[in-house]
Design a protein that fits this description.
By secondary structure, the chain is of the alpha/beta class. It has helices spanning about 30-40, 70-85, 90-105, 160-170, 170-180, 205-215, 225-230, 240, 265-270, 310, 330-335, 340-345, 345-365, 370-385, 385-395, 410-420, 430-440, 470; strands at about 20, 25-30, 45-50, 50-60, 65, 120, 125-130, 135, 195, 220-225, 250-255, 260, 275-280, 285-290, 295-300, 305, 315-320, 445, 460-465. A five-stranded parallel sheet has the order 10-11-15-9-17. Strands 3-4-5 form a three-stranded antiparallel sheet, covered by helices on one side. Helix 1 (about 30-40) crosses helix 3 (about 90-105) and helix 5 packs across helix 13 (about 345-365).
Amino acid sequence: MADDIEPLPPRQSTPDWLNIDENGNVKGIDTLKLSETIIKDSPVIGVPFNGNIRYYKYNGISWENLTEKSARAYIEREALEKLKRYGAYNVKRMQDVSKTTLIQTISEHNPFTEQRTDIIAFKNGTYEIETGHITPNQQAHYLVNGHDIDINKDGQAPNIEAWGSYLFGNSWQFIKELLGYAFIPEYKTFNTIAIIVDEMGGTGKSYFFDSIVFPLLGTKNIVAKDMDTIAGSNGKSARFGIVGLFEKLSNIHLDLPDTRIEVPDTLRSLSGGDRMDVEAKNADALSLKFYALLLFGANQTPNIAVNVALSQRIKIVPVTAPRARERPQEQAKRALLWNEKEAVKEVGAFAYSVLIAYQEAKQRGKFSTSEAIETATKEWLERQDLVTTFLKDVIRDDDNVYSGGASLAQTWDVFQLWLDDNGIHSKLQRKQFNNKMDQLGYKKIKTRSHQTAKPTDNPIWSWDGLDLNPYFNE
């Protein structure tokens, strides 16, 4: 019968920060000791940042950034709970503990400046990229990009694989490698900027990202700034537009407007992992290093005044799936190929899959770009080169006609007419235009015989053999 007797609950011990009399009545508290207890049980740290203090709290996976106001409220809640538990609560004690704790959290150095790229924090532990081992999460890693999912090394993701393959065809492997790289807080190994182009519209690209990609990377690790804002092309300085990318793993904006980016320097700097000067509202300018992978989506490719460096970084990824919106037959077909509810459950296994794909790409030194990506990117780059596109539109290829070439002044004037006709607002300067013509192999010669109504009295600089006849005949 003795086995049926339940043990009495253990007596609640008195914490060392609580002062009581011989009758067990609360006399007061040791504010400093309670402050230290709160920091131990609910870690908060304040670090020097641009002449101010930046606060973080540890959530069991990673460190989350807090405003000072939020940090104070968080500490007050912790103080309130502990004081109430022992019948020691009053407003003054709570506020005194909060003030003391906030000061106690301040560190002399910032351990978050350089994020580790060899480990990733998940809900079920820290994944070591090289070994594949999973170890308990640790505050001392000072990681700011945690993932509230369990990484699953032993599982499979057949529904996600079917879904992604259907949307992106042979480019799916590239997408997987890219998503794996998005977990890594650096932008030096690969400088890729991906632009997913869904010309049909309504293919379910955005729904796939909402259902799979955002939970995979974690919404707290993602921002959604459009290309205009980042580049400063919408009237705002790029120095203001990019501050929101700080300590984020990815910038994913899937609905780019139809604009032209004339000065894409910020895109180049961001994708190179360079340190950049930025400004925030009501704050001094500061220099920050960013690692947010740039991933955009659009129904048509954006117009960007690309340079050589940027042209090597941007990849156009076409969506190959047919339109599903308002098409019941297509929706029924997809339902037979994968189960969306099951796909959502596979995110942990998919996380492991994309990290392995990234590792393999890193070992090769390049992403797996499909023929569709290569073709789409090449065609897009040709369209971004205004001078080449202009010449394709206006030149007459006829070896039997020799006009002596159009003069430099005439060619520039015709280029301006062509821009107007096509509704293009370009900041390309005349010197830049002439340099591009040189690069394309056109030679300057001085001649009296050139593409005008009659020869000029004196030789003038012309582009040898350039025939812009369609425009001159109008």
